[in-house]
Input
Amino acid sequence: MAQDMTLLWGSGSPPCWRVMIALEEKNLQGYKHKLLSFDKMEHKSQQVLDINPRGQVPSFKHGDLIINESYAACFYLESRFKSQGTELIPDGAEEQALMFQRTFEGLTFYEKMAAVIFYNYYVPEGERLEAALKRNEEALVAELNLWEGYLEKLGSGSYLAGKSVSMTDVVVFPTVATLFRFGLSAERYPKLGAYYALMKERPSIKASWPPHWLENPKGQDTLKDM
Output
């Protein structure tokens, strides 16, 4: 099964990490994979373009099937291998509704994070505005407070959509981890900090931890005052 899968990925990319966590949670170790360098623009190589004409990673293939969008790949893996590994979509209607809601809210969470920490990367120097970055930062603070409230409501030791790991954690944890990598304070956001610490101990997270984070554990301080 896993031997028929190929993943082209980049270290530290939350979309790539989502797929890698899903593969681990579904016990699909042993898939073929290749780590690409963003600095060398390898994600624009012909090898990637043959699978993903957008020139983006993840680029994921299972047999002759190609599923490049990270959310789509994660849901595909859960649907295709539902009885294997961790059940990522709960059966109960209430639990399932919350899981779907939080999972897709995770897209907004990621966008608001990226608008701050990748601002200088995405916006050309001549087009950067202090006021625009400030608005982005304020939007991210509001989003962080939302997720703090969600976790507080669920209670101590909870995951993002309940007492068990779900698809929400697979796709949203990389965003949370990236925030702390860029200096987010666990003292200011204690619920998110506790959740981050809880998930870090999970085997699927340890197995898929970005290699360049292992090489340089310190990270950056972009968000230290947020």
Notes: The two ends are 44 Å apart (CA to CA). Residues 87 and 156 are 22 Å apart (CA to CA). The chain is about 55% helix and 10% strand. The chain has a mean pLDDT of 95.
